[in-house]
């Protein structure tokens, strides 16, 4: 016990033990543990929201695995929230765990989230984006190294100033050299803190609050808390806070002055819980701004017992071997040597991340950045996912969902029931959006079902059933955001980034429109455009196009802005046009059949897209027709595709009947192998596209086909037969019968219309007005042109609606 | 962004056969006075001397300068006494640091890169700064024999006196080993695979056995080897993994910014144009910028505004190729056009550089034309010219 008293006694002269740290610094974390071990305080005070005091014991729970974050959110407005992420190597986490292990009370002493979240409201007015889960509060809780968003120009970066003074151009590197890379303390465990405090003290003298105006208020609150703790525990008080705050906590001020600063702070009712966090979100690139580039590397520095560089290189080698790269132990040795020599040359005490990365690149990756990207992704950032025990309080997403369920009068029931939604009604549209968003989040409460009766696009049918495990799903989804909207948006964006194929992204775009996630759409669209640009499989592109065009039209129905979508669709179409002709060469029968389906799909999509009013899309049809022309004239293209191309041009009226007849004659001439010709015929008149009617009405075409068929030599006939059978058996019985009769009657013996030349074959040259008039009443009835009929039609709609 | 626009070919007089003690004798003075292009250690002798005089950091055995000073020699800077060191290589600092450090760790250094990224230039200056001699050079070709890397024989001596050290003709690598100097191997991947593998013993055992004499040459401390290789050329002999493992690899990047690349291209085009007596084109810069933009976009697989991704064709599209496209265009404009470089003059050249694989590359090129070039402001003429040659 004497040792303890000695340590405490030494600290006593200077008041409470103030441990200034850098958030998420492994060296700081290690130093904090050593200092706590030595000083053995009776209470540990930590910079963090005091509302979370009750949650501290959960940190000792077996199921609690960092990285996790403390989440504070406004009760009435789950979208307003702030996170305090804690990794295994965060000094705060180390302090909490130390306190729990030694049965010492731990307390958070920062300004309560009640106030900081209310501050967020005011910042909204100042123009900081309100939906962002990281307001100034959270940014500042890491802010000692990274200036937060918003009025960053005013703030100073204390580390930057110190690093510059020390002659470093990179504050991160300076900090690494001076603090993080110090070995486990030889000698005085408190020395690093004293030195750092002096440095920060000098800075604060020069810069005051350094533009962090709110820090003064927070520090006043912290001082009051420290004082209270001192009254209770006398000198056994240790404080873990950002190094920046240490001089302020040390300062002697009057209680009255501190209380005056805290007067009249805005308030909002808040709630706190633990949520799981990931290394990826700790890193700066995620946009969550936790402020560190390399959580994986820091985690390694913290957890490696000794020889961090050697262990790191071995880890890298393991990863690269797992990816089938040839990396031997000799590589590891050389990489370590290179890293150490580099560090010596750059005048650093130990190899840092940049030296190890350079060494890995030169030795293990053969100078290439491609495998290095893998190292960056898997190790330097890392894939660690935190876990939170089930006993943690409910996440705000659950509250938001409950609120929405109440408002939309959708009760979660275990019994399956069917729900009919009319999207023209506001409540029903909101319900549909909610269900779609939940589906995106993996909460399969409702399954879309086929509508009975009406088939209008404004109608949706859902099968609802609330399973108990869905609550777990909701809790899991809490990681994505605090409201259903923001969570679904974040999830959709993440899904888009992770999506494998082009079709997945297209499907996602469709779901984003259904769930009305306009904020996710730009990301999804960007990724869609990127995937489309890099995808060289025309088949995939052609598959994606129809879904995209469908989304485009559906988006119009819902009144969503689909400009970006249209642009992407047009770009996709262009790529299909360029890639299609080469892709059609040298296909086998199955491949050709598949490609024919793609051609059909693209044709339909281009038709719809060409109708779209957006500018710059009018030329698409013309371009597509020129592609079709190329297809039908190229001998290397399989017959079935050529035939289909001719047919599509003919249907569009782009190819004159005479020209079509010439092409058919060409294909069916004796020079063409019969199998090819049969395939061509299948493409031309096959499938459910009314090909049979074409033959019925155009006797010249029928004559050509008939003449060719009778001319097929006996030995080739058995080869051709299956193809022809497939073509003609798809026709309606009536069509087949008519065709049979026409053929039996023989060519040229028809109505004689074929002889009139200029008229369309099968039709008279002149209109027979008397017969045409007879049809008119029926047409009027169908189109609802008659006023009286129209009333009746509307009434009917009203009844069913 | 390398500033070097030196040709990658090397003056044959540098190549191995002549005694390479460039520092001594009257012959060296003559070379210096008349040489078309003096060696790095001669051209920058003043800077090297100034660096050596003020360099107080520890030097590895037989190094003329400390690693720190070598890096400074390459990257440029100002010495405490005010001597200005000109930058020899303008590019990422990291690359030079890794290269110098590699030489200090006695691992061999492999400089990789597409043509025109100053590989030879960097290797020459490294050797000059480290050993004060950049002439211990083996030029790799498809016909490089084993003798060029190990040793040959003076057959008159051999026949007259039998095998002895006097009859042996050492290669530059062997001399470097004996004297603890830096040897250079140019175009390592052009050397046949079996000859390449001669290097394995030299690099791992640091000895060169001479079985004919029952002797060996052991490398003296300070010996190291810099190899350059072209990683995207056709007809290269890939390094065996055993050899590759003995090198630390540094990839010299293509110019980082469009401005730097435009600068390199226009400067080089100007030089070539003068030597070909082409009339100077007044408005060429716009067209050069366009060529560089097209090359960079296709090479990087993304448009300069970073908004559209693109497929990359199979060709290298290096700066050197951009230079040749523009020179070609200038020649067209001078001899068949009105002397002004126009889109039509470069379109055919670009097509030739981009479309190397007729099937895949053509699709990539047409996609690029239709989705990027057509929409771009002020590129209408270029689009039309490209459509004309593409169809």
From TrEMBL, chain B:
Q: Where is the ATPase dynein-related AAA domain?
A: 109-247
Biased-composition ranges, Polar residues, are 1-14
Q: State where composition is biased (Low complexity).
A: 15-28
Question: Which residue ranges does the record annotate as region Disordered?
Answer: 1-33
Q: Which Gene3D superfamilies match?
A: P-loop containing nucleotide triphosphate hydrolases (3.40.50.300)
Cite the GO molecular-function annotations of the record.
ATP binding; ATP hydrolysis activity
Signal peptide range equals none
Q: Which Pfam families match?
A: AAA_5
In terms of InterPro entries, this protein maps to: ATPase_dyneun-rel_AAA, CbbQ/NirQ/NorQ/GpvN, P-loop_NTPase
Name this polypeptide is given: ATPase
Specify the species: Streptomyces coeruleorubidus
């Amino acid at each position: 016990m004497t040792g303890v008293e000695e340590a405490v006694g030494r600290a006593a002269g200077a008041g409470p033990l103030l441990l200034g740290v850098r958030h998420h610094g492994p060296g700081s974390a290690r130093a904090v543990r050593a200092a706590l071990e030595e000083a053995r305080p009776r209470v540990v005070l930590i910079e963090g929201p005091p509302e979370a005091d009750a949650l501290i014991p959960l940190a000792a729970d077996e199921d609690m695995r960092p990285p996790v974050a403390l989440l504070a959110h406004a009760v009435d407005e789950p979208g307003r929230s702030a996170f305090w992420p804690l990794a295994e190597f965060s000094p705060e986490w180390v302090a909490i765990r130390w306190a729990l292990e030694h049965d010492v009370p731990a307390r958070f002493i920062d300004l309560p989230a009640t106030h900081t979240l209310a501050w967020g409201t005011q910042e909204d007015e100042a123009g900081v984006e309100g939906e962002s889960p990281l307001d100034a509060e959270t940014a500042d809780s890491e802010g000692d190294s990274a200036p937060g968003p918003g009025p960053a120009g005013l703030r100073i970066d204390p580390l930057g100033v110190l690093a510059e003074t020390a002659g470093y151009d990179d504050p991160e590197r300076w900090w690494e050299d001076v603090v993080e890379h110090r070995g486990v303390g030889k000698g005085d465990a408190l020395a690093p803190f004293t030195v750092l405090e002096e440095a920060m003290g000098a800075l604060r003298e020069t810069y005051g609050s350094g533009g962090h105006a709110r820090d003064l208020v927070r520090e006043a609150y912290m001082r009051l808390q420290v004082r209270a703790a001192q009254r209770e525990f006398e000198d056994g008080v240790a404080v873990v806070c950002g190094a920046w705050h240490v001089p302020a906590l040390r300062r002697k001020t009057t209680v009255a002055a501190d209380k005056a600063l805290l007067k009249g702070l805005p308030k909002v009712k808040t709630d706190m819980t633990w949520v799981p966090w990931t290394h990826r979100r700790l890193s700066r690139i995620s946009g969550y701004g936790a402020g560190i580039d390399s959580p994986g590397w820091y985690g390694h520095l913290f957890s490696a017992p000794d020889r961090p560089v050697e262990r790191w290189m071995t880890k890298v080698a393991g990863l690269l071997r797992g990816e089938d790269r040839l990396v031997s132990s000799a590589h590891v040795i050389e990489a370590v040597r290179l890293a150490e020599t580099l560090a010596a040359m750059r005048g650093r005490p130990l190899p840092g991340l940049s030296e190890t990365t350079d060494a890995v690149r030169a030795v293990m990756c053969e100078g290439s950045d491609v495998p290095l990207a893998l190292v960056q992704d898997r190790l330097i950032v890392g894939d660690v996912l935190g876990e939170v025990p089930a006993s943690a309080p409910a996440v705000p997403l659950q509250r938001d969902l409950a609120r929405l369920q109440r408002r939309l009068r959708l009760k979660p029931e275990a019994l399956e029931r069917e729900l009919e939604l009319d999207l023209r009604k506001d409540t029903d549209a909101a319900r549909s959006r909610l269900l779609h968003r939940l589906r995106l989040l993996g909460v399969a409460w409702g399954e879309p079902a086929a509508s009975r009766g009406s088939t209008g696009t404004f109608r949706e049918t859902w099968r609802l059933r609330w399973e108990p495990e869905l609550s777990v799903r909701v809790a899991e989804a809490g990681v994505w955001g605090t409201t259903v909207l923001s969570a679904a948006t974040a999830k959709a964006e993440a899904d888009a980034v992770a999506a494998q194929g082009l079709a997945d992204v297209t499907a996602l775009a469709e779901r984003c429109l259904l769930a009305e996630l306009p904020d996710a759409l730009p990301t999804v669209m960007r990724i869609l455009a990127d995937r489309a640009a890099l995808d060289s499989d025309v088949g995939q592109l052609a598959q994606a196009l129809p879904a995209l065009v469908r989304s485009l039209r559906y988006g119009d129905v819902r009144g969503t802005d689909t400009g970006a979508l249209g642009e992407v669709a047009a770009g996709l179409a262009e790529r299909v046009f360029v890639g299609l002709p080469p892709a059609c060469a040298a296909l086998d029968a199955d491949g050709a059949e598949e490609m024919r389906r793609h051609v059909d799909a693209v044709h339909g999509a281009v038709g719809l897209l060409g109708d779209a009013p957006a500018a710059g899309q009018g030329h698409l049809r013309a371009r597509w027709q020129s592609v079709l022309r190329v297809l039908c004239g190229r001998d290397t293209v399989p017959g079935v595709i050529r035939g289909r191309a001719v047919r599509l041009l003919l249907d569009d009226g782009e190819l004159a009947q005479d020209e079509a007849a010439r092409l058919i004659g060409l294909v069916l001439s004796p020079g063409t192998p019969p199998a090819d010709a049969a395939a061509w015929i299948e493409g031309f008149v096959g499938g459910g596209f009314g090909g049979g009617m074409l033959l019925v009405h155009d006797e010249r075409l029928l004559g050509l086909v008939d003449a060719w068929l009778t001319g097929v030599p006996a030995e080739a006939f058995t080869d051709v037969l299956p193809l022809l059978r497939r073509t003609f058996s798809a026709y309606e019985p009536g069509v087949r019968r008519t065709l049979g009769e026409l053929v039996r009657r023989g060519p040229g013996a028809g109505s004689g219309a074929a002889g009139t030349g200029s008229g369309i074959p099968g039709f008279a040259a002149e209109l027979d007005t008397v017969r045409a008039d007879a049809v008119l009443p029926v047409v009027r009835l169908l189109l609802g042109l008659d006023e009286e009929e129209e009333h009746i039609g509307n009434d009917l709609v009203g009844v069913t609606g | 962004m390398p500033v070097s626009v030196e040709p990658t070919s090397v003056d044959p007089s540098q190549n191995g056969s002549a005694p390479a003690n460039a520092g001594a004798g009257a012959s060296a003075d003559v070379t210096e006075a008349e040489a078309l292009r003096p060696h790095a250690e001669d051209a920058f002798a003043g800077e090297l001397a100034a660096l050596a005089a003020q360099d107080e950091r520890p030097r590895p055995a037989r190094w003329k300068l400390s690693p720190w000073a070598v890096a400074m020699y390459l990257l440029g800077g100002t010495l405490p006494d005010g001597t200005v060191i000109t930058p020899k290589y303008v590019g990422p600092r990291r690359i030079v640091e890794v290269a110098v450090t590699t030489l200090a760790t006695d691992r061999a250094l492999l400089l990789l890169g597409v043509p025109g990224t100053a590989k030879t230039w960097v290797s020459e200056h490294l050797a000059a700064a480290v050993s004060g001699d950049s002439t211990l050079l083996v030029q790799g070709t498809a016909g490089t024999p084993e003798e060029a890397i190990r040793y040959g024989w003076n057959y008159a001596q051999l026949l007259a006196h039998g095998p002895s050290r006097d009859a042996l003709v050492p290669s530059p690598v062997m001399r470097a080993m004996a004297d603890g100097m830096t040897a250079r191997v140019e175009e390592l991947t052009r050397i046949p695979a079996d000859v390449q593998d001669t290097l394995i013993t030299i690099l791992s055992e640091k000895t060169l056995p001479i079985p004919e004499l029952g002797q060996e040459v052991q490398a003296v401390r300070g010996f190291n080897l810099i190899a350059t290789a072209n990683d995207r050329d056709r007809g290269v002999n890939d390094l065996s993994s055993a050899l590759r493992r003995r090198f630390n690899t540094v990839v010299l990047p293509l110019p980082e910014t469009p401005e730097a690349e435009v600068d390199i291209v226009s400067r080089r085009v100007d030089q070539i144009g003068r030597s070909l007596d082409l009339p100077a084109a007044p408005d060429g810069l716009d067209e050069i910028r366009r060529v560089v933009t097209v090359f960079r976009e296709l090479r990087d697989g993304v448009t300069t505004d970073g908004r559209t991704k693109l497929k990359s064709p199979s060709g290298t599209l290096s700066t050197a190729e951009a230079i040749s496209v523009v020179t070609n265009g200038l020649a067209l404009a001078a001899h068949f056009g009105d002397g002004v470089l126009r889109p039509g003059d470069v379109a055919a050249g670009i097509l030739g550089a981009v479309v190397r694989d007729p099937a895949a590359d053509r699709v990539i090129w047409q996609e690029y034309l239709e989705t990027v070039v057509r929409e771009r402001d002020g590129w209408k003429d270029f689009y039309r010219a490209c459509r004309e040659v593409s169809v």
